[in-house]
Write a structure and sequence with these properties.
Belongs to the tetraspanin (TM4SF) family. By secondary structure, the chain is mainly α. The chain has 8 helices and 2 strands, in the order H-H-H-H-H-E-H-E-H-H. A two-stranded antiparallel ribbon has the order 1-2. The protein is elongated and about 90 Å long.
């Protein structure tokens, strides 16, 4: 079986590190913003403004990377998923979480494999069972869908053997299913991203305004000679 490091890619690792960094920065930003606003500390409000600006720039940069590197990301994701399918084993507790995520994807998007059910022909367990078993999460039968994960047995295989075309599974591959889902929900995704960006811009504007007010108050408090 593949080691955990083989189930990742440089781009996905970079994306994960970016998300971790943005999450930590967001926590720090919230703390600085609250502390600066309550105590009217200009330097903390300045740091709050800087953090918001960095997050906004990071989000724009991430969007550009995804847009211009989408083919590379698709190829890497394809390799990862095909490795997962090839080494899928319900008894492997080390990869249980990852396999359950993939089962969930196949169930929710009603798809099978990355490009289609044929991808599962590379799975050693299914091959050793003469293709008489198939992934339950791919099935279009209600009783199999309730199982949710692992392999289901094909009813009455001819001569004890079968092919993926004999399986009662969804014909659509998950690659096409994910792309279709993104197209169908593009408006919602763009709306959420725009809303977050507007909130961040408002936060930047308010922090600058508060800094100016604090500066004005400090100026008026200075005794005239």
């Amino acid at each position: 079986l593949l080691a955990p490091t083989e189930m990742s890619s440089p781009s996905l690792k970079t994306g994960a590190y970016i998300l971790i960094g943005v999450g930590a920065l967001t926590m720090l930003m919230g703390f600085l913003g609250c502390l600066g606003a309550v105590n009217e500390i200009r330097c903390l409000l300045g740091l709050y403004f800087t953090c918001l600006m960095i997050i906004l720039i990071t989000q724009v940069a991430a969007g550009l990377v995804i847009y211009f590197q989408k083919e590379t990301l698709k190829e890497e994701l394809s390799r990862i998923v095909k490795d997962l399918i090839e080494n899928y084993d319900p008894l492997n507790e080390d990869k249980k979480n990852l396999q359950e995520v993939w089962d969930y994807v196949q169930t929710q998007i009603t798809c099978c494999g990355w490009t289609g059910a044929k991808d599962w022909e590379d799975n050693e367990i299914i091959t050793n069972k003469s293709m008489t078993e198939y992934p339950c999460s791919c099935s279009n039968r209600t009783e199999d869908s309730e199982e949710g994960r692992g392999f289901c047995h094909l009813d009455d295989p001819v001569n004890g053997t079968a092919t993926y075309t004999d399986w009662p599974v969804h014909e659509q591959g998950c690659m096409d299913g994910v792309e279709q889902w993104l197209k169908d929900n593009l408006g919602v995704i763009l709306g959420v991203c725009t809303g977050v960006a507007v909130i961040e811009l408002l936060g930047m504007i308010l922090s600058i305004s508060l800094c100016k007010n604090i500066h004005s108050e400090d100026y008026t408090k200075v005794p005239k000679s």
